[in-house]
Amino acid sequence: MNSVTKEELYTRIQNYHLYVLGEREEDDDLNELIADEIEIADIRLEEIYAAGSLFSNCKISAVDFYGAHFHKTTFRNCVVVDSVFRKADLGSTRFENCRFDNCDLSRSEFMNARIERCTFENCDFSGIIFTGNNITDSTFKSINVRDGVLKRNEELRVEWQTYES
Predict the structure, then answer these.
(1) Which of 30, 59, 148, 156 is the most exposed place for a label (fewest CB within 10 A)?
(2) What are phi and psi of 35, to 5 degrees?
(3) Residues 46, 21: contact at Cβ < 8 Å?
(4) Residues 149-161: what's their mean pLDDT?
(5) Dihedral Cα 69, 72, 76, 78, nearest 10 deg
(6) At a CB cut-off of 8 Å and minimum separation 6, what does 13 contact?
(7) Can you list the domains of the chain with their CATH numbers?
(8) Is the four-CA dihedral 98, 85, 160, 153 of positive or negative sign?
(9) DSSP H or E segment with residue 12
(10) pTM for the full predicted model
(11) Is a pLDDT exceeding 50 seen at residue 122?
């Protein structure tokens, strides 16, 4: 797995016309970012617009995606640790064989996503909108769901261990 410096990642983002700390112009043609077998660590990517992207075989650690837009993005075989997705748009996103540890997904919009063979452990789902998702063979351990809306999800072989604090 290759580690990517902050400068390299920002260059990749610019090359793919993704937006960090800004709004996407309506007439801009957004290209997809494809991140394969890279390590992303200790970086702030608040409000990045990365809809339709692919993160495959990545390790993401201590990354701040506050308010990011990942609509229709795929995360495949990724390990995500100590990262922030607070107020992120995760609508229609696909998660396949991923692990999330100690992540903040509070107040994010997690709707109509597909979650397959994933584990979320010690994650904050407080205030999350988590509806209309298709979840298979996944585990949610020690998940804070205080003030969250979790409903109308289709579940097959899913284990939940939640609490409200």
Answers:
(1) 156
(2) -115, 110
(3) yes
(4) 95
(5) 10
(6) 19, 20, 33, 45, 48, 50
(7) 2-163 (2.160.20.80)
(8) negative
(9) helix 6-15
(10) 0.84
(11) yes
